[in-house]
Specification:
The protein has about 700 residues and is α+β, with helices and mostly antiparallel strands. It is about 50% helix and about 10% strand. The strands form four sheets. It has a five-stranded antiparallel beta sheet. A hairpin with a 7-residue loop joins strand 1 and strand 2.
Amino acid sequence: MIPSAIALMKVLVILCVTVALPVALIWGAVRFLQGTFWLLGAFARLAGGLFGRLFGFVRDTITDSLGLCGALLTTAVVLPLAVLNVLVWRWDAAGHYGRALEGELEEMGVALWRLAVGNPVRLLGLERLTEGIERRLPRLLASAPAARGGAHGSFDGFEILDTLPAGGSGARLFLARPTRDKLARWRQDGKPAPGRVVIKSFALDAGSTLPQIVRESRALEAASRLGLVCEHELDDTAFHYVMPYVPGEELDGVIAKLHARRGAAGLCPADLALVMSYASDLLYTLDRFHSEGLWHKDIKPANLIVSRGRAHLVDLGLVTPLGSAMTLTTHGTEYYRDPEMVRMALKGVKVHEVDGVKFDLYSAGALLYSMVEGSFPAHGSLSRITRACPEALQWIVRRSMGEVNTRYRSAGEMLADLRTVAMARDPHLLKPADLPSVSGRTVDWSRLGGLGPPRTTASPAPHAAPSLRRAPRSAGGVPARALVAAGLWGLFLYGTVDFLFLADAPSASASERAARRPHEPRDPRRLWARHLDADLGSAAAEGAIVVIDELGEHVDPRILGALREELEERGFEVLGGPGGEGDEREIHFVAGARRAVGLAGPDDPGAVAALERHLAADGVLQGAIWLTVAEEPESLTYRFVRPRAHGPEAARTFSVLGIADGSRPRGPARSRKRARTAASQRAAAASAHDGTGSAD
């Protein structure tokens, strides 16, 4: 009976192979053709890129040559006018024409640089070589501190380190270091005690005016409660106040660099997520201002400093109490100032008669437009976004810059919509109707940095913001149906061979049946301890570790709970993952790590390198544990990343099936086969032993 069955199965296997071989040949031919077309496409893209660079070189050379000729012609006209005004002692006009000559000479120098160096370098694809000279150096020169004069002014309790460029407020700005006594006094009073501060000083004998001093001083008490001002002092002839110094780069410079990398294509998904995080920082700060009854009134890219991955709102020069009885003014920056506010100011409306909150939200929408589009909204609310951008994000910009009565009611309401877009799995699939302000659903505010719900609205039905977790990626480019077919054929052949291999074995004994029983669920603590010993065995038990959790909901939460318990037992502070406190500090570190990796996965070397740099720059985090669903069924990929000085550990994939959903699954097929074979061998040995004799 058994030999007949074996012969029959062998015939079936031969038939299956006979059928599968043509299928495999056809599939191989299709893949060969796909590879051939991809190779041809790559050559076409290469040829197109070379042609594009050559065309750009010719175009830029012609443009710069024409610009050089135009600057020479303008100089030839302006130079006699400047000399003539000097001869007739008209110094103001001579200075005017002299500044015009300076601008034309600058244009000539730039054109000569591009013709001699810049354009050939870009033709060869070496533009990063001159990026510092062409982009960063001009901004560096423009923002250089003013030359030190004879007298800086005297401020008790401060050591003046340098001067900073002043704006149009008529003030002088000094970078200073507080003395030890000053810092101790601030700490005793419960005030912030930064190591470096900015002193904004007004003096009547230095050209400041009394209206400037009054405008700057009217909201400082409220700003002090927010921790934005350390102290302020006013006497008969001078006034100054002290603010914490925020080192970093102005937001407009950061935006220019982001758009320079992509050009007219618009921001990539990672950069788009970054600018949305900057806008979220602004809205969170504005909510604090408005809660204290303050209207910032001068929101623009130059007034936001990007430091350590966050945007900080600075410059209190136009801050106004929302309930002020003063007449509304037109102060602010064009393109970021609400035109409706200007019309009301011309009518003599008082500040307390308008809703300054909505004017700040207009400026926030204009700023968000600038970050997405790469330029200022020249046509106000009618400005269109032409770069690639999710529809829901465009709707947020339009609503914040629309008519006053249709705008957001608070910064918290706008922040809820913006964070919903930022946390969506695919922001381009999100519709405006899905946003909390439209759908009437509330947001899990604990996930928005601790910001409370809008104070002017009732709480609608509960709604949790979408998760940032991504589904596991499929194999590169292989059709899903081909994978399914190949998998089914493989399982069939494997089962057939397995049956034939075990057909000659004795019948199953009790020990064999015991070996076939499902394995007991494994202890998740022991699972993590084995892997963490290899990664953290030599690490000092101090600092914090951030967990980037991208596991699916089908994975038992006990897995991450066991990871948190194991890390805390080793002395580390765990940031992120379930069981965290969800405070602003934890969300800041987790968001910083997510911004560093963008939308890539742990198998992307660029994302891992970016995470290494982020950890090295942060200085607080000991490392990052990056978890994502593996391509193997019911498994996860674990990667431990250290700062740049150490380098990342290799990614490892291991099964979590034994503790998923409380099930008791069977082990892998190979392990089951080994167990059955070993059990059969032990049964045969026991039978032989019984046949030769026993202790009895």
